[in-house]
Amino acid sequence: MTNNTSFHANHAVSATASVNARRTFNQLSLASAVALALTAGYAADALANPPVWAEGRILLQTKAGLSDAELDKVLKSQNAKAIGRIHQINLHIIQVPPQAEEAVARALAHNPNVKFAELDMQVEAEQIPNDPNYASAWHLPKIQAPTAWDSSQGSNITIAILDTGVDANHPDLAVKLVAGWNSVSNTTDTADIQGHGTKVAGTAAATTNNSIGVAGVAGAARIMPIRITNDPSGYAYWSDIANGLAWAADHGAQVANISYEATGSSSIASAAQYLQNKGGVTVVAAGNSSTNPGYSDSPYMISVSATDSSDAKASWSNYGYFVDVAAPGVSIWTTTNGGGYSAVSGTSFASPVTAGVVALMKAANPGLSPSSLEDILKNTADDLGSAGWDTYYGYGRVNAASAVQTAMQTQNIDSQAPNVSITSPASSSTVTGVAAVDVSASDNVAVTRVTLFINGQQIAEDTTSPFGFSWDTTQVADGSATLVAYGYDAAGNQGLSSGVTVTVGNVPEPKVVDITPPTVSIQNAGTHGKNMTFQINASDNVGVTLTSCFVNGQLLATSSTDSLSCNWNINKLKGNYTLSATAKDAAGNQSTTSILVEL
What we know:
By secondary structure, the chain is α+β, with helices and mostly antiparallel strands. The protein has 11 helices and 30 strands.
């Protein structure tokens, strides 16, 4: 494991589902993720044994810039704590009370400093029972691989196989293996614990022209084994898949294959975007439940359904809005654990067929960006079903020869800078505490990172969309602050947002202490019959709250205003009397004035 990845055996990750320009982006809600995970495509016994999530933990991605201390505050309110992190994609593994996983994830997902929170789902390898009667590699001529091999065989391309491991001693695979990783135990143990991974690896890249066994689609490509499970049944957690994908990206993988149902995971999508930012492509299986799981399309993963030798969708293959392309997945002759060979079926094998085609394209034109590779793959696919894109076949069944030929003829010169704008906070608004800063960034190819600057100082960098930051405004002086964001694409083109000026207002204005008493006066308004009338007038620098009139200390009248008319019954009174007026303000300051009256 690289130094910047602190992740341990049982820690798990989550999922974001997105779409390309053709389809609308929607982040998968927690409720949807749970429902999908419970109905998604697994092996033949999937319905009897639905997948589960890791007990007592969830996955959470925060906005860039949120400190550990602030994250702890957020988690403490839910009786949760961080126990691990995949630094490359800023993904936190969170320990929560048992049986509270759904409720805590739902609550945390609404926090403005959290991008997503989800369960750490357990998924199964997308394989259905072998077909021992089929021993012909029909899928290779079907996708016109022999024609493609005249131009490219995948040389100098590394395909990461995220699976149950790979048999390092298999004669069709041994010479092709490069160093790999076990993302569950953080070791180099990549031996195949279940057998599925060896089948997947051979489908993608078994050695060609060696007079033995079978031929992979990209026979000259290298294989990087990434073991994502230590479970002999082959089940894997989303967290271990995301962790393994981030490791593969850091160690030179140009193509990654995940023969598990991964499209619905925000965590895996974030790791796939991380690989994409480094120039790599992630291919995933659509699933084997013969259902539409309802996923949105992801711009970071190529999802593959399975077809048979007649170019019909395999009866068990999943379908839906998320499917990008189709590929052969029925009775695929490949390598098996222990040095053997067998025919196997499943979207688990349609996926590495496609990954192999991507490797051929990448070898034919190493300068192509991930988005260009995906566009070419789609545009050169043989259209099946209804005209154009459809839910069964996506853009069609892959055609290796057309894809390689188009890749060789494509120039990938990107000179267009990303479009960047700060969408929140609003200009002229006042911000306090930890403020959420949201940035919209788009590009003709792809935005790889966005950096946020406050008053000319870089605050944080975000490498996963939607791009957002948590800005601790207490670290800058109160007053005016200007925010700008820079967006970058893989070609190094830089886009700059307009500046947004806000007011930082963490320190309250000093409270003004009122120590000035009101002024008050008495005017004799004359005698009317038995009554003598006096007018009390008061004023104050803030405001008078009470005026009162007294005769020889006895209250005669009060008012809550700054004026008061006092009527004094003087019938049968003789002698000297003291008439007093008092005024008070809200701070309690008081003043009194008196006059002597002789009757």
